[in-house]
Design a protein that fits this description.
By secondary structure, the chain is of the alpha+beta class. The protein has ten helices and 32 strands.
Amino acid sequence: MCRNVWMSRMRMLSVCAASVLSMALAAKAHAQDATTCKKTLASETASYERQKLGMLTTCEDQKRSGTLPANTTCAVSTSKAVAKLLKTTQKSIAKACCKGKTCPALSALGFGSDGSSGNPVLAKACSAGDVAGARCTRETDCPGICANGGEKEGQSCSFNSSCADHACATGNCIGGKKDGLNCDAAKDRKSCIKGGGFCPTHEAPGPPGAGNLGACNGGTNNQGNCAADSDCPGGGFCDNGCNTGKLLDNKNGLCEGALCASNKDCGLCTDATAPFFQQSCSADVDCGKICAGGDKPGNACKTAGDCPNGTCGNIAGACKTGTCSGGFCSPTSGAHGRSSAGLCAAAARCPNFKNDMLPGATCDGGKKNGLACKIDKDCGKVKGVQIKCNPGCDFALTNAIDVGNCLLCNGDGSATQLHSLYYGDLTATSGNAALESCKTAVGKAGATFFDAKRAALATCEATALGGSGSCPDATATAAIDAARATLKSTIAGACTGVTADDIASVFTCPAVTVPGASASCAGVTNRGSVSTVSDLADCIACVTDFHASCTDRLSAPATGAPFPECNSLCGNGRIDGRCSNNSALLCGSSIDCPGGTCLPIETCDDGNPQSGDACPSNCNVTVCNPSGSQNTMTVAFSAPTSLGALSVFVEYPDGVVSIPGQGTSTDKTRFTADPSLFFTPNDLDYAVRVALLSTGGAISSPAFSVQMDSCDGAPGATSDQFHCHVESASDTSQNVVSGVQCTVSIQ
């Protein structure tokens, strides 16, 4: 019996030992598979980016040599070859990373959501609320949902009081031809609505959302819906015309989705009989008085004279106050409430690049997770629920296959943008052989440099991911420096004879910053001005450096966190700020700054880091307070033939000088030009675009002049602060003319 027990125990020990050995071997194999997978992800995605850009470059060369028609769209003509390359790359990643359905854990690849084992947190998503699972950068990206019943149940909200119908009992017309008209009388309300505005009153709540939203007064979102001043960029403020009907009453915010100044602002008139029902209050007196007894019981009143034979008094308990929690209003009473808002927490999602502003979109879930799509329908459904098609490379990660799709998506978009930079912005212009030769060289040199840098980094990553060193190492740095020098010398040699205005008329440099660099690719002004061949070469090298560094780091996050420069604040499509009590904390409004306020660091952000549109490439336009004195800016030009049409873009130093008005509504009386010309100025507050068209003879130089206000406290304007670009020109027969140059002088 003892022997049998002993033999049984020995068999158990043997099985346990075998099990432990098997687990150890499996763990070792798993670790090896993770390393192999990481190396493959880095190398294969780098190869894909290089080959795609190479295909596009070859196509462009064939267009210019005549092998392909000049009107060929290379993105289309190479699409089949690129799609085939993509599938081949995806198969290589799947083979190296997954045996059957078994893949290394996301955390082992550096893409986990918890930042464990020293891995960086690569992406964040809302943990709950109305947009649970959506990409986020701060808490206000994750609003809650109106709950507890009521007319707004199920709607997105940031405040409890946003969930009530906060239409005003009295107010002024917002928008339209009768903007500012008092809406108390029925005829005035009708007049307001007929004129295209709305009255924020119970009787005429206006368009959806008007009841608990204000309208921007001034700024770039003038008359747009708002919940706080931060929704009214460009110097506007959020105004809903409530309380006494004065337009400025909402300056500090009502507790209905707007920010508040202090706890006393967090009250709400909740008694329906109060004249100022549902308006902000700090005491019952703020809710208005009503007549008790007499001939007019229940009527609103101010003095006893308004209540014949009765009394005029406050309504006890009409004002229900709350407290400001974390810098925003959080009512403690009332029939309406909201479900919990989410936190912006770490999540296993595809890390983005250039703020999801890369071209294309991806499916977020299902069998096509991470694959390209155009609309939701392309992504199919899971258990009857439609999968979303998100802009950019925005989808959840569940395995190594998803990681591969994520890296390929970012690399694909990056290659597309570089191709656009090399060729799209430097489009073909007939009649200037030197410029055409320069453009051809720029494209080839840029693609060659990208190929060399991306290859050098990929080779370095293979060693670093194996457990030794970091990137770029000395070998990679030397190779990259040599390739960059070749790019610059190639462009300098090929662009001999090209004038500054030839380049500037077709090209501006994006304001992106190479990781670790102190200045953006757009130069010292951060406005992207390219006026010399040297500027052009520096721009191509700089932006190529940016793309190669950013996509490389994304492909190998185990060697370090993604560079913050790859998702710059300027160009993310939102006006950013920093908290007054913590400058390291980004904010969109003061709700992001518990105990502090949000101090904007941008005045505009249109989702791109380039000048030429409503927002400059540095996302800041300095406000000008006129000093009373003026400068005269005169724009002259030189052309090889007589011109019948001319369009120029002149950048000027905002904060030093300005032109009254904005856009096509700019003050045209400030401009002087030949009265026989059709003359159209469009002021952007940092630059002015002017188009001139002759119906008879030729346009003479100087083309025009403009009286500009000098700004209070600013130094005197100098000519070198102004940059003129010829955007287009044609002769008197409407033929395109190249080689036209413009200059600016200041008096």
